[in-house]
Design goal:
Elements: E1 13-19, H1 33-52, E2 56-62, E3 74-85, E4 89-100, E5 110-121
Antiparallel strand pairs: 1-3, 2-5, 3-4, 4-5
Length: 140
Amino acid sequence: MDEPEANREPRGLLVLRTLAMPADTNPWGDVFGGWLLSQMDIAAGLMAGEVAKGRSATVAVEQVDFRRPVAVGETVSIFAELVKVGRTSMTIRLEVWARDLVHNYAEEHDFVTEGTFHYVAVNDAGRPRVIENNPPFVSR
C-alpha cells in the first residue's frame, strides 16, 4: 500500500454493494472469508464481462489479505480497477470497504481487503477468445 490506511479513499469504480446477512456469518457474527471472496469474484466478473463484451472466466486470484472482519449488518462495497487488458486476458484490482448502516450507523467506511483477479475472455466452448476493442478505462 502506498498511503496510510487512515487517509485512504476507495479507488476504482463501485461495481457491487451488498449487505452482510446472518446466513453469511460464523458463530461469532463475522462474515466468512469465503463469502467475501465470492462477492469479490462476482464484482470482478461484472467488470470482466463488460470489458470482454461477453463470457469470461476467473483464472487466478492474487494475495487477498483480510484487514478486519465484516460483521452481520454491515454494508460491503466493492470497488474495481481495470489494471491490464491483454489479447484474451484481464487483470482487475479490487478493494472492499464496509460500514454499518443497520445497527450503529457509521458515516465512514473501513478498508477491509484488496486483491487482484485475473480473467480470460472465453467463447461458448469455454476456450480463450480475443478481446475486441480494448476499453479506454484501463487505470494503470
